[in-house]
Amino acid sequence: MIQTESLTKKFGDILAVDRLTLEVAEGEVFGFLGPNGAGKTTTVRMLTSLIAPTSGSAVVNGFKVGVQDQEIRRTVGILTETPGMYDNLSAEFNLLVYANLYEVEDPKRQVEKYLKLLGLWERRMDEAGSFSKGMRQKLAIARALLHEPRLLFLDEPTAGLDPEAARLVRDAIEELRKQGRTIFLCTHNLDEADRLCDRIGVFKTRLLVVDSPANLRTRLFGRKVVFHLASVDESLAEIVRQMPFVKQAQVVDNKLVVSVDEPEAHNPDLVRALVGAGAQIQFVGELRRSLEDVYLQLVKSN
Amino acid sequence: MKKIRIIIQKEWAEVFKNRLIISTIIFMPLLFSALPLIILGFMPGDDGSVDAQLTTELPDQFAQYCGEELTASECYKVFMVNQFMLLFMMTPLIIPVNIAAYSIVGEKTTRSLEPLLATPITTAELLAGKNLAAAIPAVLGSWLGFFVFLGGTLILSGSPQVVRALMDPMWWLAIFVAGPLLAILSVNFSIMVSSRVNDPRVAEQLSAVVILPILGLFFGQISGLLLINSRLILIMALLLALVDIALIYVAVRIFQREVILTRWK
Question: What is the ipTM, given to two decimal places?
Answer without folding.
Answer: 0.79
